[in-house]
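Write out this protein's structure.
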Amino acid sequence: MAQKIQGCVALVTGANRGLGRAYCEGLLRAGAKKIYAAARDAAKISMNHSTLVPLRLDVTAPDDIAAAVDACADITLLVNNAGVLGNSPMLAPAAEAAARHEMETNFFGLLYMIRGFAPVLAKNGGGTIVNVLSVASWFASPFMATYCASKAAAEMLTHAIRMQLRSQGTDVVGVYAGYIDTEMAAHVRHPKTSPAQVVERSFEGVENGQESVFADERAVEIDARVRMGRAAFYAELQQRWVDAQARNASLIQTMQGVPSGDPSTPTTSKRTT
């Protein structure tokens, strides 16, 4: 199946900035009939257009979702964009807090939204759900391991609901990209993809009936590497982790006034996670 973006009624989560704002702008350009722009603080929705309706919505709050279901009973396109990134290794001191926060938003928030709006989409002819996932859904990076876990869970959820909702005529699209040039990736020095490109490819996928959208070349590359060279890919990640730990240890030694490589300094005191 496929859906035209022109004339659709869409709900976009996390719409106050970054990729969510870009999705709203893309919907406006494509001629959407109505756009519910959702954010935890609706006052931060700065776009002003006659077809755009600001909506207060925290995807982790069941009461907010229930209110949104009542307010947005006419949607035909749901864009699950809201997400958080904790940047935590799995054994870091704050890993549990980061993992719970990421899972609550990136997985449970997704589940809550789909569970609430699936009947609405069915009533309106089926429609489409777009889940913004990540290349991090496909592998475990030790640097942001808790985030990878939440996105891997979100990918499994996406596959499962696709099968469950097919009978009601609802398409479910997973969107994968590498680093996107938004505030979430402001700390990243690697090349980044523009939000506009992610949006453009997402909507092309919706209109072409695709189940998976690779929104940039990084997604194409990582997909190939994890499918055909997983062992080599993980060996590279392992070396990056070892190198980073060595740099951290050297930095701590320098700050403590200990020459790098001094055999009198216990290595356990210099490791960070």
